[in-house]
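Anyone opening a protein record will find just a pair of labelled lines. The record below illustrates this layout.
***
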Amino acid sequence: MQTAIDLLEAADREFASGDVLQGSEKLWGAARHAVMMAAQKRGWPYSKHGAVREAVNRMADEHDDDFLEAGFSVAEGFHANFYHGFKEDDSIEQDRPLVRRFIERVLLYAHQ
């Protein structure tokens, strides 16, 4: 859990300094670590990307929370942005809070 929080704070610093690529990857890392922690607590697989996506789907079903699937997709977009740098500034500003909300919800559900 602490890794997810640390990466989320690091992402904020990277975006604030103008390093969009590193900010994107750290934001993705925070999301993935949050899901990995929740999956680990439930005994679910999490070592491959598909397993992480499946864990998100299972949590969404478990908590009747469709936002989780959408939030994870937005987080995946930041991961892709690290490699391809395609996100525009307005998209980044619009999408960052969605990923933060996703992470907060996953961390909350991890403790339930």
